[in-house]
Amino acid sequence: MRAVSRWACLAVLATVLLSCGGETASSCGPTTARVAEAIDGDTLLLESGERIRYLLVDTPESTGGRQDCFGPEAHAFNRGLVEGRQVTLAYGEACTDRFGRLLAYVSVDGREVNTLLVERGHACVLHVPPAGTARRSEFEALEAEARRARRGIWGACSPVPCQR
């Protein structure tokens, strides 16, 4: 049986608390929202107009005329999880990236999408300090396991497009 990370448990708890009348905004942005569109594998557009960039996640490109190896698959996986759905947002050490997108851990139905993307091999870990510093080693361990198992990009792409 697989152990559940404390972050997944916290995401579920946050979802329960919010559904019972908890706060709906943090100092960074909304804590719950409906996703209008999955722009690509690692970026969302909320119905409110905010753009969300997944913390610690970098998927192969599939927009702007670029079609990196496994980019369409990462985009489709993300779209299937969140598009049109209500999500819970948790923020890290920084609120936005250099493009003005909100940086968040995104959960839907008690599952954190950030970790799913990395563990299923749809994404590489991208750490841009200080964003995500507290959970960096957790995500790097998920990526290492996906590499060993040759999941997703680790078995399909050579070279891996999001690896820096």
TrEMBL record:
<keyword id="KW-0732">Signal</keyword>
<keyword id="KW-0255">Endonuclease</keyword>
<dbReference type="InterPro" id="IPR016071">
    <property type="entry name" value="Staphylococal_nuclease_OB-fold"/>
</dbReference>
<protein>
    <submittedName>
        <fullName>Thermonuclease family protein</fullName>
    </submittedName>
</protein>
<dbReference type="InterPro" id="IPR035437">
    <property type="entry name" value="SNase_OB-fold_sf"/>
</dbReference>
<keyword id="KW-0378">Hydrolase</keyword>
<keyword id="KW-0540">Nuclease</keyword>
<dbReference type="Pfam" id="PF00565">
    <property type="entry name" value="SNase"/>
</dbReference>
<feature type="domain" description="TNase-like">
    <location>
        <begin position="29"/>
        <end position="156"/>
    </location>
</feature>
<feature type="signal peptide">
    <location>
        <begin position="1"/>
        <end position="25"/>
    </location>
</feature>
